[in-house]
Amino acid sequence: MFPRYLVDFDLQRLPRVRTDVIVIGAGIAGLFTAIKASETKKVIMITKKSLLDSNTRYSQGGIAAVISDEDSPEYHMQDTLVAGAGLCDEQAVNVLVHEGPDGVKDLIRMGTQFDIENGELALTKEGAHSHRRILHAHGDATGAEIVRSLSERTKQDPNIELWDDHYVIDLITQDGECRGALVQKPDGQRVFVEADATILCSGGAGQLYRYTTNPDIATGDGIAIALRAGAEIRDVEFIQFHPTALCYPGAPRFLISEAVRGEGAILRNIKGERFMGKYHPQLELAPRDVVARAVLTEMEETKVSFVYIDITHETEELIKHRFPTIYEFCLRYGLDLTTDWIPVAPAAHYMMGGVKTDLHGETAVKRLFACGEVSSTGVHGANRLASNSLSEAIVFGRRIIERIAELPPLNRTPSELQVAVHRKEQPQQAVVEKKLKLQKVMLRQAGMKRDAAGLQRGLDELKRQSAYFEYALMKREEYEFANLLICAMLTTKAALLRRESRGGHFREDYPQRSDAWVKHIVYRLEEGHLEECIQDA
pLDDT tens-digit profile of 94-143? Predict the structure, then answer.
């Protein structure tokens, strides 16, 4: 039983702010849509930390778009469909590959400085791509450059009001229509922000797992908020684990970009043996799920917690020029990318599923849109193709703004909504302990390799924590844990239901892909109860 709202409130007693568009989140999806919306609308952009805190900032590899004359949208589409393992929405992929180049031009117009070689945009290749189509910036700092350029534009835009350190607790709905958001200010006060359209750009749920490349803010807020508001949640059993995150004592699970393998790096086990030949003909450039499971298998067989990535055969000049961020980060821990094999292990990286949308980013709740990792547009299927995430954000961000332009103004009648559940006072256990316990359950029972017994144990354990929704929540970390718990239960339930292996979902008790499961698992909340629906792909 999930609550419709996490906290008690009375809209009549709350301060009210009105705007045209609310943008929730500050990655590429949030920044880009806010800038596009501000061309004709007033925008309030709400971030729970700051403009510079998002998954986008840590994106190294780049953004996939057909730029080269040797490439084509058809090639990009085929690569995306193959990686997506039969679950991509072909219409959505078609939109992505044809509209991606124009989205890149928008980014350039907004000030993003992609790398240039010989007077042309520099392109590289990543896993499962048939052609060089990945644009990058400062070698391996593409996300940081995009965030830099877009955040500078955002700060200077008179039509964008920035609310840093604010937390969206829930969306306010009436008669199946989103009217805005219940927001908590840094001082703990709450306010109702009313808008003609609300866009969720809140990122993914990497913090479901103990080891992740995602920052601390990736707590699945948007997915849980949207579920409570009446939206549909799709494909959340498909979690992408990046095969090569730094695994070294004292260091965070820092991403070692797929582009390193794209430029020729090889993977070796603890014995120094190159092993990908045993697993896939594309070797290190196989789809991410294949490489990640191969790495995990090698770790299990050799009884160590890492493998090595080796690019020492390339020149020092190339490595430092192409991967300056990774080179400098590793050096902090005494690891030299030019001479050392770097210890790596898989880490949770990306959620393929999320809030189900149509081809214009609109959810099942009118006036509520989702963009970026929080959304499920159908582009990624069961396994996202490398560097398609940034492309998806700009392509569907543009489409969302086109759709919002067609919306009639919200009928701004006073909302008489009061929620009074009389929640209980919380016990003293620290939220950080609860979160760590949840992460361990997910890592052990709903990680890269799954089976029915483990998933059921995990789900039972998560259900035991569901009494948390009965407590009075006051702080950001308390809301975050409630949202993580909802996401964890959805992911585990869907993984238990899907009795096959496909893309980012692998069942040891059902190791083969099954034609009977060319389907999507969709969840929706009806009067507090979770409804499960299986839809044909």
Answer: 999 999 999 999 999 999 999 999 999 999 888 789 999 999 998 888 88
Q: Does an H or E element contain 533, and which?
A: strand 529-536
Report the CATH number of the 241-347 domain.
3.90.700.10
Q: Looking at 148, 153, 288, 384, which residue is catalytic?
A: 288
H/E element holding 351?
strand 342-351
149 by DSSP, 3-state: which?
helix
Whether 288 is catalytic? yes
The CATH class of 9-238+352-405 is alpha beta
- In Å, the largest CA–CA distance within the chain is 69
**Cβ density class 67-78: b for 16+ within 10 Å, e for less:** beeebebebbbe
Q: How many residues does the chain have?
A: 537
pLDDT tens digits along 352-378: 999 999 999 999 999 999 999 999 999
Q: What is the pTM of this model?
A: 0.94
Residue 71: phi and psi, rounded to 5, are -100, 170
Domain extents for the chain?
Answer: 9-238+352-405, 241-347, 421-536
Q: 421-536 has which CATH code?
A: 1.20.58.100
Through-space distance between the first and last CA atoms of the chain, rounded to whole angstroms: 28
Contact between 136 and 107 (Cβ < 8 Å): no
Cα atoms found within 13 Å of the Cα of residue 87, Cβ hemisphere only? 34
Amino acid at position 300, single letter:
E
Q: How far apart are CA 202 and CA 121, in angstroms?
A: 30
Positive or negative: CA dihedral 495, 497, 501, 504: negative
